[in-house]
Amino acid sequence: MAFGGAALAIFFAWLPAVFLVLGHPAWPLFIGLFVLPLLEWMVGDYQGPIPYWNFWALRVILAGIALQGLVGAYFAQHYAWWLVILAGAGSGYAAGGSGNALGHELGHSRALWDRRLAKWFFTTVCFGHYTQEHGAGHHVLVGTPKDSLYSYLSDTLSSFSHRNMIKQLRLGIEIATVRGNLWSEVYGPIFFYVLINLVIGYLAGWKGMLFLTVQTVVMYLVDASITFIQHFALHRKEIDGRFERIGPQHTWDCRNWVTTLVSFNNCRHVDHHINPGKDLNGLEPVPEAPQLPYGYAVMGTLANFPSVFRRIMENTGAQLAR
């Protein structure tokens, strides 16, 4: 049964490649937007077996996610323009979900080549500043106003996404400036992203560039949706000029089995923040933490309806900051 869970996780990670081969490049977007939320809702509170992930498997899966985006962009020259948009969006959905989860995990790794692979993946979606900003910024500042993922009860997904994108880049530049690696961590990845677009444009024309642009935009939107859910309106209190220690009350946990599989355990986010040195196989649910009532795909859909989303989150009983 754990093998079936692993197969499901890999299937969702490589959806664009699977349906590119089958000749239906628009299907991954449909599956991500409708089938995945339905699966999460259907399993409900069921807790199935969680696979143990070998890190070589994670590396191969992440490399495949990055490559399928580039290959998809190359083949976009053969699609109608509207199909290019749908295919690029499907690839962006996989990159923002599975790709972001694995890039996040390998970005935390002590192994240099894991971190380089994560950086390469994020560079292909114009998110190269993420790896350093996440570790030196978000993990230190989580739940405080300077954190790029800081949000309020009054926030909508739209308002959060705009603010998050700007704050994340600004904080990434600030950290890189202090560390003296502004080129390698911020400007270099942006330069190489532009270079990738130019090469794809030369090989596949404007449709290839359109594919990559749509992929990047959707990746950002999916990432913003997930981080919005993970940290919605949970703040650390400031006591005598210092913020309280990070605890279970500062992050949302999710126990949905399908979400756990397709996020490669990343939805056990509370344990990750309390014990950032743990790899994904060691992460455990934290029962005393605020619990999301549904999986990430369902909650991401609901987040597009602010009043409904806010009411659901308030009904969880968590101490939400206004």
UniProtKB/TrEMBL annotation:
Alphabetized Pfam families for the sequence: FA_desaturase (PF00487)
GO cellular component: plasma membrane
Gene Ontology molecular-function annotations: metal ion binding; monooxygenase activity
Keywords: Cell inner membrane, Cell membrane, Iron, Membrane, Metal-binding, Monooxygenase, Oxidoreductase, Transmembrane, Transmembrane helix
Bilayer topology term: Multi-pass membrane protein
GO biological-process terms attached to the record: lipid metabolic process
Spans through the membrane: 56-75, 81-102, 186-204
Domain Fatty acid desaturase: 81-299
Entry's localization field: Cell inner membrane
Keyword Nucleus attributed: no
Family: Belongs to the fatty acid desaturase type 1 family. AlkB subfamily.
Protein name per its UniProtKB record: 1-monooxygenase
Species this chain originates from: mine drainage metagenome
Lineage per the UniProt record: unclassified sequences, metagenomes, ecological metagenomes
